[in-house]
User: Fold this.
Amino acid sequence: MFDVIQNRRVVYGPGTIRELPGILRELTGNTVMVIAYSDKADCVRLAVHALEQEGLTYVLDASLRGEPSTDDIDRLADIAVRNNCGAVLAIGGGSVMDAGKAVAMLCTNGGNVEQYQMEGKPISVPALPVVAVPTTSGTGSEATKVSVVYNPANKLKKSFYSPSMIAGTVILDPELTVGLPKDITVSTGIDALSHAIESYVSLKATPYTEMFSLQAMKLIVENLEKCVRDPNDVEARGGMLLASYLGGCALNAGIGLAHILAQPLGGLIKIPHGVACAIFLPYAMEHNVGYCTKKYCDIARIFDACGEDGSILAQEGIARVKAFLKRLNAPDSIRQYLPEDFNVEKAADIVLGATGHIKNDANPVTRNVIINVIRRTV
Ligand SMILES: [Fe+2]
Assistant:
């Protein structure tokens, strides 16, 4: 059995940001709440200019810095409600899109976001329509019904979700990701790779999600190094943007140990999500390889290894992924993010309390596994 939630419309291609006014006009006659990572970025100015030319009213907020907090979401929803907004346009990376989805939900369901995130208040009213325009290639937030928000009260990054929170419309314009700095290209790209690999080997994977996972992996192998070598390669940027989207679609299968660690540690030690994924992914693969050998052989082949199905090829897959990360100069230690009073056992308890994905790995994730992996990355 599976239950798939997908976007209603996905527009892909260089220059497709210009479709935005027509799309928004179809969605609402009211003011549009624009949540953007910057009010000076070319794509945001272009979007705002297009809205003005079409006579659409909007409220622009570009104040988000990093991952959204519960306070950010409550404040943005208050702005949207006071301005009678009829749709939310989110232009930015995963943080901005997560904020957009949460704000759209809160506008129609009321209250504050902590009630939904921590207390399990039901999301009973459809969210406002959301248009998601990613400007990085990694989180796949544009393809999911999930929002991850930092709660300063308990220092936890925790997700909540509803089928109605998924962006109805997604614009994938590779030109918006051209020129992204190398470190962000790498960390977001490895986030996408982690989504593809972890969803592929998840116990909740289905033929439907496997299709997305495999294609996302292929596109990442073909395009991520090209983007690093030439940040202006629009074709490679397009490949990565599509990989990120497909990786997000694959997340219907859930994720595993790398994300089980990366998400709460992001709140606890302020390590950027993609960086944490890059550090934990090889350990997550080693953790599972003996429990789903055939799938690891499939991964190995995508990374150009060949041979008969079996443990040798499966292990070669991990070696190839490690070599790929090394060529990208990806980070491999959490040490620089650790506060002096970091306590690995306490951190493990927080990780265990924060995740909803603990049962996705074929090899069970226990407290000891979490402690061991954290210790090996320090
Ligand atoms: Fe992720």
